[in-house]
Amino acid sequence: MASLIQELITTLREEEQLYQEMIPIAAKKTRVIIDNDLASLQQITEEEQVTVEKVNALERKREEVIVNIGTVINRKSDTLTMKTIITLLENQPEEQKELSLIHDSLTTTINQLVELNHKNKSLIQQSLEMIEFNMNLIQSTRMSPGSTNYTKGASQLEMPAAQTGMFDAKQ
């Protein structure tokens, strides 16, 4: 069991390190979104994806270790949480403390990352709303009948020629 706990601690440390690496990436993404730099946003997203794949691999490893711990202590792995495992380590104070510290640190790091990602999501949503507003504005000005001139001929409504759609391609 001790080796499984050490493996869990090591896996969680590696995971926490990867999440720590994602925080500056998310902060950089915020700046890029504000600057509307799509090329950099694409590059950052690819960089993020590589880190996320590493995190997913560690998550699978962590789940496997927890299944093994559940087997050793004769409990179902889906009922084992980190807090439960920490509580079960009463007779091993060093491992209990170490696991508790890494759990708290990981929770803090993930919360920071969630906050940054929420901010980025909000910025992207605002950007999309602005784009939609501009698209609607452009369409409404293209569809307005005639011009707004008040000369002699203004009483005769000037009908625009057949309009093509905004994104029509020439054939």
From TrEMBL:
Descriptive protein name: FlgN family protein
Record-annotated membrane-spanning stretches: none
UniProt entry keywords in alphabetical sequence: Bacterial flagellum biogenesis
Pfam family membership, one: FlgN
InterPro entries, alphabetized: FlgN-like, FlgN-like_sf
UniProt source species: Lachnoclostridium phytofermentans (strain ATCC 700394 / DSM 18823 / ISDg) (Clostridium phytofermentans)
Residue ranges the record marks as coiled coil: none
Gene Ontology biological process terms, A to Z: bacterial-type flagellum assembly
